[in-house]
Amino acid sequence: MAAQKRHFRLAAVAALTVLGGAFGQAEAAQCGNSAAGFETWKREFIAENRGKVSATSLDALAGTTYSTATISADRGQHSFKLSLDQFMAKRGGATIVKRGRVLKRTNAALFDSIEQRYGVPPGPLLAIWGMETGFGAVKGNVNTLSAVATLAYDCRRSEYFTDQLYAALTLIDRGVLSASTRGAAHGEIGHTQFLPKNVLNYGTGGDLNNVGAALSSTANFLKAHGWQRGAGYQPGEPNFAAIQGWNAAQVYERAIAIIGRQIDQE
């Protein structure tokens, strides 16, 4: 009889453990792969974070919608699979070089001050600026908070973009972002397309739709990723690792290094 009672107690504990795990899972916002579960995920996320995140930012999150444009862009990044020559042609590498040289001359004082402070020369900054937004011509028109929330919900990279979502909510509290802020499809903003967490970590102050603020923040990002004043930034040289920190696609990294060199060596 004692053995039977002991077996019953163990079975009861095991059952409670399973139920506890089930309830824990039910309480966690579940990712999904279509628009169908987004509203449920959003309600669960808000409920989980009530009292941990400000009511103002959660109210902004409540107003977001599932961004089909974001999902389409996330699934369609085919240009990173091109050869270097194909990528340079598709992204207009020669045009970026030509325009970048002009902007280097017309904004010489700005680039001098950035290089003096961060050690980053104009070339890679202009290459990034040109590659990301065509020097500010195309910064995107997707609601930033909806984009980041959609990717936080989407199962493909949920953990990574949940961090970005918390950063975006912090930026809303600070007045850097608003519920109506618009930018690129993955939630990037400004002339050089900073994700929310990069704005928090490397933004130097000011609106990233301002050229000076955007370029200073980009130089600060590169410096924080190991940029060494005066060192080279081609593959195999010390500063190439900082460019790799900006974007993980090898063809993009190499294009930035080539375009930057052609601008700097004018």
TrEMBL record:
Keywords: Signal
Signal sequence region: 1-28
Annotated Gene3D superfamilies: 1.10.530.10, Bacterial muramidase
Chain ranges of the Transglycosylase SLT domain: 38-233
SUPFAM superfamilies linked to this entry: Lysozyme-like
InterPro entries for this protein: Lysozyme-like_dom_sf, MltB-like, SLT_2
Protein name according to UniProt: Membrane-bound lytic murein transglycosylase B
Organism: Methylobacterium persicinum
Pfam families reported in the protein's UniProt record: SLT_2
The keyword Signal is annotated on this UniProt entry: yes
